[in-house]
């Protein structure tokens, strides 16, 4: 089978780039031919009138359409697999594949198809106002921090919906979680055109060995939507428990001055240090107050046989089974999160039992082999349609 991957890379390397690269490698390892139609947002500052062209491309890009048509005629793939289209590739290319009789699979990494900023989170709160074709809320609330930018995001979402670029031209939507699937169904996508294809994770030969664990761990970029403020409040009220966070905290100025003495900020950790970090944690906490996408830190920690405490919000309950691989807490509720943390901290044997169950789940559901099987099922379904 020949697959054409389509991706507009972000200006900085992101998790989506890692997913695209991993899928290309996986497909080629299994004997498939892969070609790539791509652009990068890093081009924008380097091209003439880059910001204006990016704005227009997000709505309609005749040059990208022409290049995509020529590319498909040359490569003749069996399936087009779309990841990100904004801003330079443009969703206006999607009808080209349908006109040439090539099925399109689209991985839904975020909520951008129904929410202009892609997060359902703005000004410190979950926001669903744009659902149901009400994109104008992005301007009313100035979700992008600039009225001009917010207007641009609204216009491209409204135009794509009006032209039915996604509804009429994507054969199968590959969502990461059931929560994402439900979001698309509410937006008018036929449930029969949606499959669940979670991300995959590289499998280490064996879990970490760090005894019972020295601290409650948090891994990832420290931001408000990750519930870091809630976690700091919990740490402040439990000075007999050590907390440690691995990840950049540039987005939260003043955090270093606000954390209590039992909360260590380790900053960015490379792969080697991160493995040691997981090994020394008793369990991992992700107290997010937004819907997340598919946080890989959960899979990484579960592979290391670490129990998880995360918020019961969005699709996180797809990953963490309450009472089996970890515990679910009410988002933004420091008292409830504190109770869950104290429970697991005081029961290291329960942590170990949940950690073993978590690793078993990752090996069963999120391995490269399982991801490949899901991809093949989706591709075959798309071709059949």
Provide a descriptive summary of the structure in words.
The protein has 385 residues and is an alpha/beta fold. It is built from 16 helices and 14 strands. The strands form 3 sheets. A 6-stranded parallel sheet has the order 2-1-3-4-7-8, with helices on both faces. The chain is globular. The two termini are 16 Å apart.
Quick structural summary:
With 385 residues, the protein is of the alpha/beta class. 42% of the residues lie in helices and 17% in strands.
Name given to the CATH architecture of the largest domain: 3-Layer(aba) Sandwich
The CATH class of the largest domain, by name, is Alpha Beta
Strand order of the largest sheet: 2-1-3-4-7-8
Low-pLDDT parts are none
Distance N to C terminus? 16 Å
Name the helicity range: 40-55%
- Which strand-content bin applies to the residues? 15-25%
- The coarse overall form would be globular
- Tell me the number of helical segments per DSSP (H or I, 4 or more residues long): 16
The profile of the biggest β sheet is:
6 strands, parallel
Rounded to the nearest angstrom, the radius of gyration is 22 Å
How many domain modules?
2
Mean pLDDT: 94
User: What is the fold-level CATH name, i.e. the topology of the largest domain?
Assistant: Rossmann fold
String of helices and strands: EHEHHEHEEEHHHEHEEHEHEHEHEHEHHH
Instruction: Name the CATH superfamily assignment of the largest domain.
Output: Glycogen Phosphorylase B
- Count of individual beta strands: 14
Structural category: alpha/beta
